[in-house]
Amino acid sequence: MGVIRVNNEAAAVGYRMGDPAWSNLGQGQPEVGEMAGAPPRICHVDIDPADHAYGPVEGTLELREAIAAHYNRLYRTGKQSKYTPDNVAVSCGGRLALSRAATAMDFLRLGYFTPDYTAYEDLLATFTRIEPVRIELNAADRFRITPAVLEERIKEEQLDAVLVSNPCNPTGVVIRGQELAAWADIFRRHSCTLLMDEFYSHYFYGSPVGPVSVAAQVEDVDRDPVVIFDGLTKCFRYPGWRLGWIVARRDTIRSITAAGSFLDGGAPRFVQRAACQVLEPARADQETQALRQVFAVKQQITIDRLAALGVTFDHSPEGTFYAWGNVANLPAPLNNGVGFMREAFKHQVLTVPGEFFDVNPSVCSRSEIPLWSTYVRFSFGPSRDNLEAGLGRLAEMVNKVAERGS
């Protein structure tokens, strides 16, 4: 995975996780401390004697009820078909949720996009029953695919399923509104399963204000071929809890639970009980509303400061806490992602080269010039003070390199 490669290289030159002298503008982790407007962080969990026992593989009933209610409240108001606990499976984090789903899959052709989340490459390479089908996005289209082109690819490639992050990591593109409704309709009509990674669902800075989820476009929760992945990691800022979930048809959840029975056995009971507290409606809404306000400001700071250095953006990112910037106009060696990353280490800043997001299970087929080699993913996940300090050091880096070349 790209972020692990960045962290390993940074560690070799002195970086240590949590070191305040460094700014980690690479790792996909939001700030986890107290935040303006957000409810106080949960810092204490009582452990009941029953917590020492195994919990249900699919998750406790209480948490699954809370998750189903969360989706019905936000996305299913006025709809006859509602999610129930039987439509939910809980897992120890997002990657394990994806692994459970992949384990439950039969032989199939799975479409995926590039650039997209780096862990998909490992997933697609590990599960040999999955035949990955690459769909390359491009800057000219602002890293989007229209519903018409998507439908044509599904038919041409005879796809059984499609995996995508929305909002997209790393580009910040968001599929929403009528466009997302068109996607849902395409997958229904073609009986093709949509695997929607929505871990950044509440990081949407456009209009109307609020989260984005394909759950709002599902007609029948037990018939539509839609599988949603999310959790506490990003939107509720508890990544260390390793608590994720899957929302899907009942039959899909049964298969995923069977996979989990031998993959991992289920999430700890006490973490699930704490998660119920996080999802209490008033608290959840306060957290996510504050999150959008704080991160929208950090997004603008990041884009403005980077643009002033000569980093260009093909589109205005609407979601996530990443800025997908092109460094081609910067002086060498800053004009490619890897060169930029290694020079930034000297200034105690981490970034992720864009080429790491070229999801490509067939590594042997990579070109000599990596795709997205001039792009960098900049994270504005850290606190504002740490973010601005890191952006300041990047400005010093660009100025020093420019002076050396003049």
Description:
It is a single chain. The chain has 406 residues and is α/β, with parallel strands linked by helices. The chain has eleven helices and twelve strands. Helix 4 (119-126) links the parallel strand 3 and strand 4 (130-136). Helix 3 packs across helix 7. The chain is globular and about 65 Å long.
Low-confidence stretches: none
Order of helices and strands: HEHEHEHEHEHEEEHHHEHEEEH
Average pLDDT rating: 95
The description of the largest β-sheet is: 7 strands, mixed
Instruction: Characterize the quaternary organization of these chains.
Output: single chain
Q: Into which percent range does the helicity of residues fall?
A: 25-40%
Percent of residues in β-strands? 5-15%
- Derived structural class: alpha/beta
Number of strand segments: 12
Q: What global shape is seen?
A: globular
From the alpha carbons, calculate the radius of gyration and give it in angstroms.
Answer: 21 Å
Number of helices: 11
Strand order of the largest sheet: 2-8-7-6-5-3-4
For the termini, the CA-CA separation is: 37 Å
Concise synopsis of the structure shown:
Helices cover 38% and strands 13% of the residues.
From the structure above, extract its key features.
406 residues, alpha/beta, seven-stranded mixed sheet, three-stranded antiparallel sheet, 11 helices, 38% helix, globular
Topology:
Layout: H1 2-12, E1 23-24, H2 61-75, E2 88-91, H3 94-104, E3 108-114, H4 119-126, E4 130-136, H5 147-157, E5 161-165, H6 177-189, E6 193-197, E7 226-231, E8 244-247, H7 250-263, H8 269-278, H9 281-309, E9 322-326, H10 337-345, E10 349-350, E11 352-353, E12 375-379, H11 384-405
Parallel strand pairs: 1-10, 3-4, 3-5, 5-6, 6-7
Antiparallel strand pairs: 2-8, 7-8, 9-12, 11-12
